[in-house]
């Protein structure tokens, strides 16, 4: 009897999970960087999808909990974080559009999650060049084997996986992969893949038609391009003004798969976005360029929030055109597209104000997911009810 009920509950629970919409929100907490053993994190606890923050007096002393699809604690590895992203890579190859964001204040770990290949990039590049030469430790499609458990971020892992799956499917589907890399700074789009050698390869139908679209055949090519993009991005930065934290950067992957027998073609696209720092800038303290940057960032991040809420409400008019960022992502937000937001927070007390507003923003996005599922009942309380029922049944079973 009990087992049947348990099974039934599990089925119901899975159904509720399936009803969820296409926006998932994961929270990641950066470790403390000081390395002090007496460090006191503002994070009180992490339990599956729930994170609880200790709020200091200034924010109403006590604690506040936030719910997400998952929370990754400070000791989570790059591989663990990527594991949940994997199904999305498969979706791209199945012809879906996918969008993966990193959101959070400057210094909270966005670039670490997405593009960390760059921090040990030159080391990696040396190994790659060497392996290319030896052609032994290197597997053409997936990258150097011995580096798979290191610090590379989502961008690198996503492309590596993509090539891996494409290779597995090659007898039935032939894939063609090309990438774009752009930066949006003060509402201006800059192509990060320009060189003398790469010809501007514009095609109709892409959202940034003027940005170079470069064909890539393997991880060799991808690494070359990541290096080029990184170099070009650094050009705009000065010592005083870390431009990378005030601009959005986006790696876009276009995939075309041709069915070997029927000749039918499917298209998928994936945007991997490292957003500008979400911190609010104290208007009394900034002027000139800094103020202009802050206004542009605020504008584009709130435009993103508006698009997401509008999608959730099933509005006929979705305000994609209010910012360059949402324009770029238009085809990959809403509809059949799948969206994942990594929300980053710092564990330090001096960042708690920003941490709380980041979590509030993210929570708003996370609840949108239930709205987008088009169910006319409160699924979050359903899940809670079912969890309670399961707990009760487990307790009853334990007593037997
Ligand atoms: P953001 O891009 O949000 O400004 P970064 O990714 O540059 O932040 O991270 C700030 C610093 O913290 C960097 O030195 C980075 O290497 C480090 N860092 C961030 N997240 C982690 C993590 N999960 N583990 C170890 N170091 C991290
Ligand atoms: Mg960054």
From TrEMBL:
Gene Ontology BP annotations: microtubule-based movement; microtubule-based process
Binding site for ATP: 104-111
Keyword ATP-binding applies: yes
Keyword set includes Ribonucleoprotein: no
Coiled coil location: none
Keywords linked to the UniProt accession: ATP-binding, Motor protein, Nucleotide-binding
Annotated Gene Ontology cellular component terms: microtubule cytoskeleton
Domain Kinesin motor: 22-368
Entry GO MF terms: ATP binding; microtubule binding; microtubule motor activity
Family note: Belongs to the TRAFAC class myosin-kinesin ATPase superfamily. Kinesin family. KIN-14 subfamily.
Name of this protein: Kinesin motor domain-containing protein
UniProt source species: Lactuca sativa (Garden lettuce)
